[in-house]
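Customer escalation, tier 2.

The customer says the design service returned an amino acid string that "doesn't look like it belongs to this structure." They asked us to rerun it and document both sides in this ticket. The original structure tokens are below, unchanged.
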């Protein structure tokens, strides 16, 4: 009886801690999966709905706020327009503002408009504080809006603030005037924006050889900066390189086949010319033999 009790205690108490890993793994695998509770499902559904509706609601809110702001500004600048009933509709102020700006541009393109602009600039240049604000604003807008300008048209990678750390920047133009005279080499102006506010940043004068020019568009780069790296644009450069490689493969095969065809054609032509020459030699030899036979008969 004592021996049976000892064996029972040994099998039930001492053996379980010393079971091998195979038995423990089979027990883990045989455990039934946990069921997802109703609260977890509601949480996942809520997050999915938030991801779907938040971008739409933010877009509508920002667009509506911008339209209302422009409508209020047009109504304050042109009070006689607000007397009409149709101006209460949202977006009318935006349309009126666009039409007015277009008309001002049409007038400014003429002789009278240029004279008025020169006269107004001469007055503004005499004001101490206003002339600096007006001059800087005009120069920036002319540089950015100009179709021939290369400002903010190229996305680059530059090592900043030290070696091994890379940031995204935008090329704003070539380095000119005194900065270019005092710095040797091909230098470019690079604007490095901050996250998440890309309107502030740093101006760097970098050698062109130290920059990595990217295939990424400016819009995708701004999204990457504003989101803090959360929104990563697709790699269009890899797609283009694969497309070019796939398009260049048949050309390479065709180029390889072309010399083979030429060599085969040359071989065939050489064989034909050799046959013709041998046939001509045989005919000439026969003629010589016939002449010799005729001379012997005579």
């Amino acid at each position: 009886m004592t021996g049976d009790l000892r064996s029972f205690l040994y099998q039930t108490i001492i053996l379980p801690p010393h079971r091998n890993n195979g038995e423990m793994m089979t027990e883990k695998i045989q455990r039934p999966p946990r069921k997802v509770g109703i609260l977890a499902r509601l949480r996942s559904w809520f997050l999915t709905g938030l991801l779907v509706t938040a971008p739409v609601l933010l877009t509508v809110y920002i667009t509506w706020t911008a339209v209302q702001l422009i409508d209020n500004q047009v109504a304050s600048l042109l009070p006689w327009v607000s007397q009409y009933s149709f101006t209460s509709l949202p977006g009318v102020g935006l349309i009126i503002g666009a039409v007015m700006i277009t008309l001002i541009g049409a007038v400014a393109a003429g002789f009278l408009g240029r004279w008025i602009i020169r006269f107004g600039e001469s007055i503004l240049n005499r004001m101490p504080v206003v002339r600096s604000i007006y001059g800087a604003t005009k120069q920036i807008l002319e540089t950015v809006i100009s179709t021939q300008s290369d400002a903010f048209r190229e996305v680059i990678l530059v090592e900043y603030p030290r070696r091994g750390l890379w940031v995204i920047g935008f090329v704003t133009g070539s380095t000119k005037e005194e900065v270019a005279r005092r710095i040797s080499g091909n230098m470019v102006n690079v604007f490095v924006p901050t996250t998440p506010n890309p309107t502030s940043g740093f101006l760097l004068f970098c050698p062109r050889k130290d920059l990595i020019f990217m295939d990424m568009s400016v819009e995708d780069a701004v999204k990457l900066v504003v989101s803090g790296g959360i929104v990563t644009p697709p790699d269009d450069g890899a797609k283009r390189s694969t497309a070019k490689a796939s398009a260049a493969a048949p050309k390479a095969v065709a180029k390889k086949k072309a010399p083979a065809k030429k060599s085969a054609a040359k071989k065939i032509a050489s064989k034909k010319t050799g046959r013709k020459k041998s046939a001509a030699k045989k005919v000439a030899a026969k003629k010589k033999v016939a002449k010799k036979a005729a001379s012997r008969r005579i």
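Tier 2 assessment: The sequence is consistent with the input. Residues 155-233 form one domain. DSSP finds nine helices and five strands in the chain. Sent an explanation to the customer and offered a walkthrough call.
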